[in-house]
Each structure stands twice: as C-alpha cells, then as structure tokens.
# Entry
Amino acid sequence: MCGIVAYIGHRQAYPVIIKGLKRLEYRGYDSAGVALLNHNIKLYKKKGKVANLEETVLGQDLEGSVGIGHTRWATHGEPSDRNAHPHFSATGKLAMIHNGIIENYAPLKQELIKKGYRFKSETDTEVLLYFIEEIQSNNDCTLEEALRIALKRVVGAYVIVLIDQDHPDMLLAARKGSPLVIGIGKGEHFLASDATPIIEYTREVVYVNDYEIAIIKPDELVLKNLGNERQTPFIQKLDLELAAIEKNGYAHFMLKEIFEQPHTIYDCLRGRLDIGQGVITMSGIQNNLEQMKNASRILIIACGTSWHAGLVAEYVIEDLCRIPVEVEYASEFRYRNPIVHKGDMIIAISQSGETADTLVAIERAKEQGAVILGVVNVVGSSISRVSHAGAYTHAGPEIGVASTKAFTAQLTVLTMVALLIAKERKTISNDRYIQLLNELNEVPEKIKRVLDNAAHIKEVALKYKDALNALFLGRGYNFPIALEGALKLKEISYIHAEGYPAAEMKHGPIALVDESLPVVFVATKDSFYEKIVSNIQEIKARKGKVIAVVTEGDQVISEMADDVLPVPEADELIAPVISTVPLQLLAYYMGVAKGYDVDKPRNLAKSVTVE
Ligand code: M6R
# Structure
C-alpha cells in the first residue's frame, strides 16, 4: 500500500527520496510523487511507476534539503496524475502526503465546499490538508496546533507528513493506524513507512506511536501526543542488513525468497530448538505459558497467507494440545460481534505486522479482555507492539508481494508454540515430542532437496502455463497447503485457481473437471494417503490432468498422475512446511512464463494498511 519517504537535513532531499520510494515499490502502488522545499515548494507527480516520475522531473529544479515523497495505492479516486500525492493546500503554502483512509472525509469536504473551497483531486488527503489549513487560518495558530485540532476530528487511519513554505526548517508528521519510522542521523532525519529506505543512512530509529505528532528539524525530533504533551522517543537499533533488501543476483525477489527458505527456517529455529537437550526455548511464549496451557479455546486471526498458516496451526494445536482452535479471517472477526470468553487465547499472525484488518481485530479482542500472542515477521511493527506476548518469525524482509518464506517461518513458529503448550499440558509423549523436534530440525535440509528440483518444477510449470483454471486439493494437514498453492498461483499468474479439501470435490467442483483442467494434489504419504489416491482416480476417470506433490519414491501416485513434484518424506505434522515449496515454485515459473511482474502483481499491495 502507499509508501511514504521524507527527508530533512544537509543532503539534497530528492535523491534520498527517489531511492527510498524505489525501496518501497514492493508495497504496491499506482502513482508516485515528490515535493521539495527550497524557498518555495516544487511538486512533481505522475501516474505509474517511480521511473515515470523520474522521467517527468528530468531538467526540472530539484534543489532542496527538505522534501516528501509518496507512492500511492489508489483508494479515493482512480490512479492519475492529479490524484497522486503530494497535494498542495488551498494557498499552495503547504504540501502533504498521506497513507491510510480518512473515513469522515465526505462531511468534511461538504463543510469546506460550503465555505467556497474547490478541490483539484478526488482524494480524502486533499480534504484533510484543506481542513488543516482552514483551522490554522481561522484560529490564527501554528500549523502544529492546527494539525492537533484537525486530527481530533478525523475518523480513520493515517500517516501524514507536511511541509510548510513558511517554516522551511521543519517537517510535521502524525500517525494513527498506519506505520511510520523515523531514522535519526547526524543533523538529519529520514521518515519512511518501513525501515528499508532508511537502513543505508542510519540504524537508529524511532517507531512513532498512534496519536503522536512528530515535529522534526535537522537536529531535533520532538514527539507529542494530541494533548500537546511531550513524549519520550524510544530509540531502537535496526537489526537489518542492506543485502537482505536487494536481489543479490536472483531474477526476482520472490525467487530469492523461495530459495532463502532453508536459511530462514534455520534462523527461525536457531536459539530456540536445542536438539541435544531436547528443549524449545521461546521466552515470549514461555512467559505466558500458564495462560496458554489453561486456555479453554484458542482463536487465530489473520488474513491471506497468514490465515492459511493459522489453518495448519489449527490442525497441529488440536492434535498435539487437545485445545479447541477456531481460525478467523480478521476482516470478518472485526465486524461481527465475536464472542471472546475469559480464558480464550488469541493468536494473531501477520508477516508485515501492519495489516489493518488484523490490527483492528486485535483491538476488538483486547476490548473483551483477551490475551494476544502475535506471530509477526517485521520487528517493531504495529502488531508486534500491541500484542501482549509474541514470537518473531525471523524470516528477514520479504519484498515479493507473494508471501513465501514468511509462510514457512510462520508454520515453523506455530509448530514450536504447539509443542511447548503440549509439553506443558502433558498431551504429548516424550518420544513423540523428541521425534517432532528432530523432524523440525531436518526441515532446512529437506527444503534444500526440493529446491534442487527447481528445473523439473519449471518444466511442469511451462507445460500448464496456458491453463485458464486450476484446482488444488489436499486433505488434513495438506488442505491448507492446497489453499495456499491456489492463492500463490492466482496472485502471480492470474490463473483462476481454487483450493478445496479433496473430499469436498465431489460436492461441486468435480463438475469443472475435463481434459483442460489441471488438478494439483498435495498427496504426500500421511494418514489420508489411501483416500487421496481414490480422489486422484476420480479425477483421472474424468480426464482431468493431475499434478501431484508426492513423497519421494511414491510409486502408486507417480503411475497415475500426469506429473509429480516429489518432496522428501516427513511426519505429516511437519510436511506442510516442505510440501508448500514446490507450489511456490510452480506459481513463480508460471507467472514468469506468462511475462508478469511476479514481485509486484497487479492490484496487490504487500502491506494492506487499509481495510
Ligand atoms: O502481512 P500479513 O501477513 O498480515 O498479510 C496478510 C495478507 O495480506 C498476505 O498474506 C497476502 O495474502 C499475500 N499477498 C499472500 O501472498
């Protein structure tokens, strides 16, 4: 979703901002713009990619050591030059960028129109900016004061950054619900939606909290709440390497991230899994183990791929811990009147830690007294901060819009959480516990073996790339992996794909089967093996094309299927972490073969910070 970059200091702002906007391209956007302050404000914006903006500004005046830049993911008004950010205020003395949605923009707009204002764009952002300026002129107050008054009337989510022609030594920023990081340099400050544009300049950062206003000068950072009380900035050190946010020779971030998985799973296990001692150490979980152990129910809330990780966790936790689990789409949970009992435990799963629906669902659950355990990838993100306890997935920055390495890391963390609870509840035998610890430990090596087979997976992908539809089927632990395989394919290759529990096929989807329909089975050797063999026969009897993820050495399915994608043998509880990898590669190679931008698929955003 929208990306924000701003700079104030001794450098030229434009190169810092453009580079930062490129770092944020992965978030998804459809227009870009920049405003630079040097005596007056120069504003350039363009529909399309940051590269289009760069072409537009060739030969223009780009001087200025104060500036704001933005990549916009359209919400109010189509993607266009005039709806792109930044926006000018009515007098042209202020310019502003915004990430989020002002929900009550329509009545505010009416109010302003009645006063004679005319708008140049269809955006809620321009309305807010005019409103701030109107308050300032009516009250004859500072911009900071006007901002505070305006924000008290605003309903919705925002990060905004303002520049003021009359105060060229200052940036003003505010946050509620959308992310904002401030990097602290020597005589300079960097603002961004996440740390990726900042990391090459400084490692000292402050994450701005909701309802805070930041007054930023080259040498000074002041944080205040909406009551005008000063807040102490909490300075944190970024633990992030520049190499982690670059492609390092891979054609796409998605491919790099798929191939990083042996390493990311290893990182996720490192320091937690001690095979020698036969223990798992996760302090964030262990400090709350008593509550988890006694939970009468576990509710899992998440969206998209993270929701699929929640579905796998449902099987694992119920199996190992014998605690009932319900998995909810955060977007549904937040708008129902959900019943949260005292003693319920909530697990919120999110790669970005910024997904608006998940954040609000957490707030709803907290209002009802629930304890929140966050399973999050991005360190310092909003969800990690609003959770009572948590475990980071340590997958490193995930830039490709399609989630891959974050998913397998989520599965790994959730399995360890389940094992800890099961051990505490004594619902698992010691032998089984040790066996699963060993299985987890072997995952990086087994994923490596799947990746060694990438050339074969590519061949299969090329064979089916022109399919119009695809069906993904699995049973038990492999059912969520079928859902995830279908999601990956539709995101990246725009092929319509459906995931189903294999047994549900005969209740409807089987009507779709003919010789043109590829049906992808996740059919590794587990307790459902015989059943899934029958399901494959049912598809073959109707001339469907079967691609099957099978356990290495499988003879039975290999003879029935049109194509097989073998994976190393693993316990059925651990197998999903491995069997999802060939499906990631299948989607990747199909998307690339069709000529699509797999890192930035159309209409999608990496971090969905609006509902
Ligand atoms: O950052 P989150 O895990 O909260 O994001 C949730 C979904 O938006 C995300 O998983 C989305 O479905 C991805 N594009 C999947 O590849």
Residues 303-306, 350-352, 355, 358, 401-403, 491, 604, 607-608 surround 5-amino-5-deoxy-1-O-phosphono-D-mannitol (CB under 6 Å). The chain has a mean pLDDT of 94.
